[in-house]
Amino acid sequence: MKDVLDELAAARRAVGKGSVPAGEAYTVEVRRRYGVPVVDVWDAITSPERLRRWLKPVSGDLRVGGKFEVDGGEHGEILRCDPPRLLKVSWLYGPDADAWPGTSEVEVRLAPGPDGATEFELIHAAVLEEPLFPTYGPGAGGVGWDLHLLALARLLADGESIDHEAIGKSAEGREFIRRSAAAWGEAHLAAGGEPEHVAAAVEATTEFYAPDVTC
């Protein structure tokens, strides 16, 4: 349990403002350090064989301008690829998402850190009208990314794969989700979120990712 929560604590979270082609956006931002070289992290975020072990299976034309699909419904276009430092994609979800192009983008930045480590930054920008935000706040995407990055940390550390979709069924995973939702609530407050909205969003996010199964 301590190792899992240590991974949660290793990340710095922020909620900010940005823009996407569809207009003004909010951002969820995660920054952390991985104790492996940049080239290893880059391979883990671009190689289909390794992507499936921490994200989900990914298929498509994996080059700039190419379209990709993630097993689970996410899909988009590769907008920019500057090995081994920057990857930017559009990130759409759901059957109606293609009717609203330019509404969501994910950018990952890598930089060399101390002692051969990698400074990792992920920024997910989505339009303010995105329907999940009023209910779930930044945790709508933030908790999901925390779960994926937990799996990435395990992969980079020892090659282990974990089922992040099933993690909410364990006591350890549910505690991780609860603390992740709370951490995104703190980031939301720091960005000026209204306390009542933040508290309701944290509760809704926790229930979404780790629903109460006692009843």
What's the layout of helices and strands?
Blueprint: H1 2-9, E1 12-20, E2 23-34, H2 38-46, H3 48-54, E3 58-60, E4 67-70, E5 75-82, E6 86-90, E7 104-112, E8 118-127, H4 133-136, H5 139-158, H6 171-190, H7 195-209
Antiparallel strand pairs: 1-2, 2-8, 3-4, 4-5, 5-6, 6-7, 7-8
Helix pairs in contact: 2-3, 5-6, 5-7, 6-7
Family: Belongs to the AHA1 family.
Domain Activator of Hsp90 ATPase homologue 1/2-like C-terminal: 36-156
InterPro entries: ASHA1/2-like_C (IPR013538), START-like_dom_sf (IPR023393)
Principal-axes geometry comes out as globular
Strand order in the sheet with the most strands: 1-2-8-7-6-5-4-3
Please give the alpha-carbon distance between the first and last residues: 25 Å
Helix-residue proportion:
25-40%
Beta-strand content bin: 25-35%
- Cα radius of gyration in angstroms: 17 Å
The helix/strand order is HEEHHEEEEEEHHHH
Main pleated-sheet profile: 8 strands, antiparallel
How many strand elements? 8
Uncertain ranges: none
What does this protein look like?
The chain has helices at 2-9, 38-46, 48-54, 133-136, 139-158, 171-190, 195-209; strands at 12-20, 23-34, 58-60, 67-70, 75-82, 86-90, 104-112, 118-127. A hairpin with a 3-residue loop joins strand 5 (75-82) and strand 6 (86-90). It is α+β, with helices and mostly antiparallel strands. The mean pLDDT is 91. The chain has 7 helices and 8 strands. Helices cover 39% and strands 28% of the residues. The longest helix has 20 residues, at 139-158.
